[in-house]
């Protein structure tokens, strides 16, 4: 009876009810300041499942970025640069499954996490395909700081988009080096600039080397910043909507539709109300058929029990 109950539950429960929401990791580190807040410690890990908005608040409060991105009481000199890197090659499950993770990227994140003066990890950030991650984080910084927002400048590089406005995608090292050169010319003293760099397949550009992995791109960015002599902090966040290994439902649906069109089939239709009714009837018919088979089998077993019609009288001893 147990396999039957499992089958019935699998048929009756709608798709997606038992699915677990996808989560992505985030890492933060810096060797140019020491975290002296009461809640933050070196190599600390927040195991809670948090949203991108909560991640922005935790980065400001627990990781001490409020001392650089917000005005007010500052316990040390501000950083020159806060680098937000939005990738798409890691999910939370990849941290324990090394065969699925990018080794160069995971090694870089682990080494940076251990060797830096201040480092934090957020292994479970709730992923969303409907919300622009970089937009959500930057707006979260602004909401958390409020009127005390003290960012000198915000630059979106790579394939980032802000407010549904796409920007031209350029190579990682060239874009950051160009920005650092302009920053030195303008000299934003006393303020920290926020640089957001995104990878992914949102745009196709001839200036970008698609053979580079995220680990190589992030390593180039950090090398460019270090060569400039700027004091910086890095926040790496993975975005499931930019992932090639784990494509979104919309991308998969579009791929299947385009494949059908390319093969000459133009009769691609979705499941409308009549289709859903028929599918429900077929599911009910299948469950009813299984129950009927069980009932008939039970009746046959009961009918097969043959009892004697008479019993012999006991013999006197």
UniProtKB/TrEMBL annotation:
<feature type="transmembrane region" description="Helical">
    <location>
        <begin position="285"/>
        <end position="305"/>
    </location>
</feature>
<feature type="domain" description="V-type proton ATPase subunit S1/VOA1 transmembrane">
    <location>
        <begin position="281"/>
        <end position="312"/>
    </location>
</feature>
<feature type="signal peptide">
    <location>
        <begin position="1"/>
        <end position="19"/>
    </location>
</feature>
<protein>
    <submittedName>
        <fullName>Uncharacterized protein LOC101505577</fullName>
    </submittedName>
</protein>
<keyword id="KW-0732">Signal</keyword>
<dbReference type="InterPro" id="IPR046756">
    <property type="entry name" value="VAS1/VOA1_TM"/>
</dbReference>
<dbReference type="GO" id="GO:0016020">
    <property type="term" value="C:membrane"/>
</dbReference>
<keyword id="KW-0812">Transmembrane</keyword>
<dbReference type="Pfam" id="PF20520">
    <property type="entry name" value="Ac45-VOA1_TM"/>
</dbReference>
<keyword id="KW-1133">Transmembrane helix</keyword>
<keyword id="KW-0472">Membrane</keyword>
């Amino acid at each position: 009876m147990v396999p039957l109950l499992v089958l019935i539950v699998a048929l009756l429960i709608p798709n997606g009810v038992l699915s677990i929401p996808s989560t992505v990791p985030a890492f933060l580190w810096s060797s140019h300041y020491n975290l002296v807040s009461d809640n933050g410690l070196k190599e600390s890990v927040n195991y809670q499942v948090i949203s991108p908005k909560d991640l922005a608040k935790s980065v400001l409060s627990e990781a001490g970025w409020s001392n650089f991105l917000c005005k007010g009481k500052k316990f040390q000199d501000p950083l020159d640069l806060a680098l937000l890197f939005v990738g798409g090659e890691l999910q939370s499950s990849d941290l324990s499954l090394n065969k699925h993770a990018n080794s160069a990227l995971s090694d870089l994140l682990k080494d940076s996490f251990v060797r830096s003066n201040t480092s934090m990890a957020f292994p479970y950030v709730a992923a969303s395909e409907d919300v622009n991650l970089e937009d959500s984080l930057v707006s979260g910084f602004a909401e958390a700081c409020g009127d005390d927002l003290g960012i000198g400048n915000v630059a979106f590089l790579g394939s980032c988009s802000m407010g549904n406005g796409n920007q031209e995608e350029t190579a990682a090292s060239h874009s950051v080096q160009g920005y650092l050169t302009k920053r030195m010319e303008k000299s934003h003293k006393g303020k920290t600039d926020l640089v957001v760099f995104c990878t992914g397949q949102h745009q196709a550009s001839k200036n970008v080397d698609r053979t580079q992995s995220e680990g190589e791109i992030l390593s180039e960015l950090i090398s460019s910043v270090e060569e400039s002599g700027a004091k910086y902090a890095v926040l790496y966040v993975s975005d499931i909507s930019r992932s090639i290994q784990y494509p979104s439902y919309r991308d998969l649906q579009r791929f299947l539709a385009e494949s059908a069109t390319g093969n000459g089939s133009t009769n691609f239709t979705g499941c409308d109300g009549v289709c859903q009714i028929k599918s429900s009837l077929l599911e009910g018919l299948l469950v009813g058929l299984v129950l009927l088979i069980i009932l008939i089998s039970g009746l046959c077993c009961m009918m097969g029990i043959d009892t004697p019609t008479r019993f012999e009288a006991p013999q006197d001893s």
